Amino acid sequence: MSTHDVAVAGVGMHPWGKWGKNFVTYGVHAARAALADSGIAWPDVGLVVGGETVRNGYGGYVAGATFAQALGWNGARVATSYAACATGAQALDTARARILAGMCEVALVVGADTTPKGFLAPNAGERWDDPDWLRFRLLGMTNPAYFALYARRRMDLYGATQEDFARVKVKNAKHGLENPNARYRKEVGVEDVLASAVVSDPLHLLDICATSDGAAAVVLTSVEYARKHGLAEPVRINAVSTVTPTFPNTVMDMPNLATDSTLAVGAPEHTFKESIALAAYEEAGIDPADVSVAEVYDLSTALELDWIEDLALCRRGEAESLLRAGDTTLGGRIPVNPSGGLACFGEAVPAQALAQVCEITWQLRGQATGRQVEGARVGITANQGLFGHGSSVLLSR
Fold it and tell me: Is 16 helix (H, G, I), strand (E, B) or coil?
């Protein structure tokens, strides 16, 4: 056991969908489910960390205090985190740090969202120094346009095909069939994906995730507290990576419109996305070969293939081979997105990194009914947020 370990005492979710309710309703549901799972009473929680919703540079919900009030003021300390799609991991890291510092024994981390219809678009107003605003207003570069550029890059570099991208959707749709929290629970075939509307060539509608309402929550404790309260072998968080890019950042990351020049400084050894996972492995002292299961950020089907390589689960350019061989499917060598991923859930920005941790926790406990990775002992999550927010959580049991 590492001195950086904290125990996952409880996890809970509100099902993903389009429910038309306030985000607080979803967050409270998930929080109560996580507390019930932990067997820890709400008055015993010493810290609440909320994942905040902020779109396009504007302050959103003051989520930590919002959830604390909705659950009933109990005197807990409070914090709010925002890191775009990496918000949940940053919130977890805030809670973990306070526990490891000995300033808290029990922390509740909650993320919830109510999303607008359609893809995430900029708010009104002119912000000429905001790359997120600029890419929408000057280039019309919505998120699917970036996803398509990444997909085209895989096709050009590694020979990926539209059929490969479709196979990712087919796999994840099958994984999500038995997940009670998934929004989309329907099998699809390769031909269904290819027959769906082209959104941004080469990606079709079924290659791209939706925007969803949803929530997830995690109860963290010190390992000592868990032991005293009868959790003899809890799932442990061994590492949380929230790294930023290293200059020069030579591979385009949304929402930036260009990459850094290597004229004065040579390219770093690892790309930003590679460094996210590397930092988690190094902190935990765990090798990629030891990973049993991965939950990755499949905003598009092609991006899942990128993440498999960024997590060092195979060599660069080999993800398609793993997919075609069934290695990333349940029953394969390294199942990826057994939850169904964003393909079955959609985006609920402050909640999704926490939802990944919930899924890995259920997998490591052997509680992922209908989608269980047999013998899972080590799991890793990965996504990233706009503006250089890394996100990877490494868990074991």
Answer: strand
Q: Which residues pair with 293 in a beta bridge?
A: 379
C-beta atoms surrounding 81 within 10 Å? 24
Position 2 scores a pLDDT of 67
DSSP alpha helix (H) spans, 239-381: 272-284, 301-310, 319-325, 341-345, 352-365
d(CA 22, CA 113): 8
d(CA 300, CA 361): 24
Residue 61: per-residue pLDDT: 61
Q: What pLDDT does 56 receive?
A: 39
What distances in angstroms separate CA 168 from CA 200, 207, 285, one per listed residue?
A: 17, 8, 30
32/28 Cα distance (integer angstroms): 6
Measured between alpha carbons, how far is 13 from 224 in angstroms, rounded to an integer?
Answer: 26
Q: Which residues pair with 8 in a beta bridge?
A: 220, 235
Judge contact between 6 and 96, C-beta under 8 A. Answer: yes
State the amino acid at position 218 in one-letter form: V
Kindly give, in sequence order, each residue whose CB lies less than 8 Å from that of residue 357, ignoring residues fewer than 6 positions away.
Answer: 8, 11, 88, 92, 216, 218, 237, 381, 393, 395
Q: Which residues of the chain register pLDDT less than 50?
A: 56-60
At 260 the pLDDT is 93
pLDDT at 320 (0 to 100):
98
